[in-house]
Amino acid sequence: xxxxxxxxxxxxxxxxxxxxxxxxxxxxxxxxxxxxxxxxxxxxxxxxxxxxxxxxxxxxxxxxxxxxxxxxxxxxxxxxxxxxxxxxxxxxxxxxxxxxxxxxxxxxxxxxxxxxxxxxxxxxxxxxxxxxxxxxxxxxxxxxxxxxxx
Length: 150
Prior knowledge:
Blueprint lengths: L14 H14 L4 H19 L3 E11 L3 H13 L4 E8 L4 E11 H12 L4 E9 L17
Antiparallel strand pairs: 1-3, 1-4, 2-3
GO molecular function: DNA binding; DNA-binding transcription factor activity; nickel cation binding
InterPro entries: Acetolactate_synth/TF_NikR_C, ACT-like_dom_sf, Arc_rbn_hlx_hlx, CopG/NikR_regulator, Ni_resp_reg_NikR, Ribbon_hlx_hlx, TF_NikR_Ni-bd_C
Organism: Acinetobacter terrae
């Protein structure tokens, strides 16, 4: 993959804003001001895509109580209900009581938010967070009708 061409810009800020930025750079462990500003711009652009209800890719991270048998069934049912949006799922047993599940999804941002809210609202869910990205996955060959055995 070809390396992206970079462009240099110059900005003028109030000194107090620059000091606040430098503090964030230290707190967030950025390597440079450029990296921090690029991250902020990317977040702004992602928020704009969400506001315009664009197709995006997202990860839904869940932590739940494994002892609740109905919850497991509800998680599977929801994933099956949203087969068009749910691409993949990974489960990791954290301890005797908790499971971490990461669900990879793709679709219109409002749909992904609504689907995520349904997962997060399930009884026994301890934590849930949706992270949307400004990317779209290529079509998955096994989801097309080509090559289906009769």
